[in-house]
Q: What sequence folds into this?
């Protein structure tokens, strides 16, 4: 029973500054990200191995200790607390249509407040809303959201190369303002993951996505969007995003600032063929200088960064401009750097996969990544010959490519318990090593690797035979009798 002298605590009697501190402690307590994004922006292995990554990896949650109880006390407190929560956290809504955004979210480790579309849609206190969708006729990776959406295929014109808008994957999620720079950096690298992304999507940015009419318990935020705040909010977008052709900026924003930002974002990132080649050579050379067989990771990371940049250049509209300016000479050198950097990466990844004690899943992940890289490398000279490249790898380079691909296939197969992967690995390893032997028939390393593959194949065949024999002849156990 309460004491007759009990006096309830009058929260609103506290000075406004103290109340704001309470609101921030209760509604803005997000933990720092648990892991920083990779140095080169995105974990490319997760992409090139078709999304396979260690089980511990997935969408990165924005962890917090928020308690929203205070929002349910009274209208005045709700108005004050909600205003502090929104302006401090700077919630940003990302909506995508026809975009397989997990290809970026998974490797980038971007912290997500919620991936629940309904929850993200229900919340109304967004400082920024970003909408990304494929333009009419644009096709970014997988087109369909589900089998139920596939009716359009039967009626699709055979000359069309994209499904109708709105039939692709849809995402609606929330991030924090502190991670806006991270998101823009992730989006800037999308071309390396989805070819032609920058010219196949419409990016619409809205500052101040508050509803036009607000209830009495919510304070308007129009005054928050000062010229300085507008510039600060658009700065990461302007700094990271280049060569995106379809962009709009609306809402509480100065039209001159919006136009200047759009013009900057639309400018191609790469315009000078000589500068591009010099930068790529420098990037590749940096990896070469870091190479150490006993510690391949630094060199591998640098070579991957170089390849990411090459992919981005090749997959954007800038590449055609560079070809027009640099001609055959540029394209030939670009192809050579691309091919030889992947070849170096194969050497580094092979060494990493041979590291004693490496987890089997990590070996498989790296193996699937690098074998796909090396397979693509074999096609690079032919693919870029259509643009005027005269580069053709010599016999030694072709043999190295086949040998490294064979070793990586064997190592990943030996680390996997999947029969399907084992069978693919054996076949691919044999094809690769035979291709290498065709160009360097007397190479001792190639001969030893072929013998190792054959021994492994024999061991697998024997093991599979024993498994079949066990299944056929194992006597029925008494407790399993019918």
A:
């Amino acid at each position: 029973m309460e004491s007759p002298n009990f006096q309830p605590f009058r929260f609103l009697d506290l000075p406004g500054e103290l109340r704001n501190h309470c609101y921030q402690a209760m509604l803005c307590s997000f933990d720092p990200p648990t892991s920083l994004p990779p140095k080169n922006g995105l974990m490319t292995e997760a992409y090139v191995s078709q999304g396979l990554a260690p089980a511990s990896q997935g969408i990165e949650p924005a962890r917090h200790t928020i308690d929203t109880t205070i929002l349910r006390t009274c209208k005045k407190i709700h108005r004050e607390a909600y205003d502090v929560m929104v302006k401090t956290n700077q919630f940003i809504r990302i909506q995508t249509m026809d975009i397989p955004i997990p290809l970026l979210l998974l490797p980038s480790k971007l912290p997500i407040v919620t991936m629940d579309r309904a929850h993200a849609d229900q919340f109304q206190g967004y400082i920024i809303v970003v909408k990304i969708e494929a333009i009419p006729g644009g096709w970014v990776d997988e087109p369909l959201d589900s089998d139920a959406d596939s009716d359009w295929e039967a009626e699709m014109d055979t000359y069309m190369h994209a499904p109708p808008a709105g039939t692709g994957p849809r995402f609606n999620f929330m991030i924090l303002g502190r991670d806006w720079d991270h998101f823009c950096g992730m989006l800037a690298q999308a071309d390396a993951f989805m070819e032609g992304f920058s010219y196949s999507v419409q990016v619409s940015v809205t500052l101040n996505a508050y509803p036009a009419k607000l209830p009495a318990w919510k304070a308007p935020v129009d005054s928050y969007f000062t010229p300085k705040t507008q510039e600060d909010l658009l700065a990461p977008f302007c700094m990271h995003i280049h060569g995106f052709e379809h962009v709009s900026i609306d809402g509480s924003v100065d039209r001159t600032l919006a136009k200047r930002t759009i013009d900057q974002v639309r400018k191609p990132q790469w315009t000078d063929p000589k500068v591009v080649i010099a930068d790529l050579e420098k990037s590749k050379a940096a990896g070469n200088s870091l190479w150490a067989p006993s510690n391949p990771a630094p060199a591998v990371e640098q070579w991957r960064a170089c390849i990411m940049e090459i992919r981005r250049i090749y997959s954007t509209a800038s590449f055609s401009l560079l070809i027009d300016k640099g001609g055959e000479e540029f394209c030939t050198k670009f192809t050579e750097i691309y091919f030889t950097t992947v070849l170096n990466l194969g050497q580094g990844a092979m060494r990493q996969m041979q590291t004693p004690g490496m987890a089997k899943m990590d070996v498989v992940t790296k193996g699937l990544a690098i074998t796909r890289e090396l397979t693509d490398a074999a096609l690079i000279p032919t693919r870029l010959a259509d643009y005027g490249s005269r580069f053709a790898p010599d016999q030694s380079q072709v043999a190295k490519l086949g040998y490294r691909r064979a070793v990586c296939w064997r190592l990943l197969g030996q680390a996997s318990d999947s029969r399907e992967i084992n069978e693919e690995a054996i076949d691919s390893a044999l094809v690769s090593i035979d291709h290498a032997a065709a160009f360097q028939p007397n190479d001792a390393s190639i001969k030893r690797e072929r013998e190792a593959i054959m021994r492994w194949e024999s061991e697998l065949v024997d093991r599979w035979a024993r498994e079949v024999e066990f299944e056929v002849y194992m006597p029925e156990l008494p407790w399993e009798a019918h």
Summary: Residues 31-65+90-266 form one domain. The mean pLDDT is 86. DSSP finds 17 helices and five strands in the chain. The beta strands are 92-97, 128-134, 170-175, 201-207, 246-251.
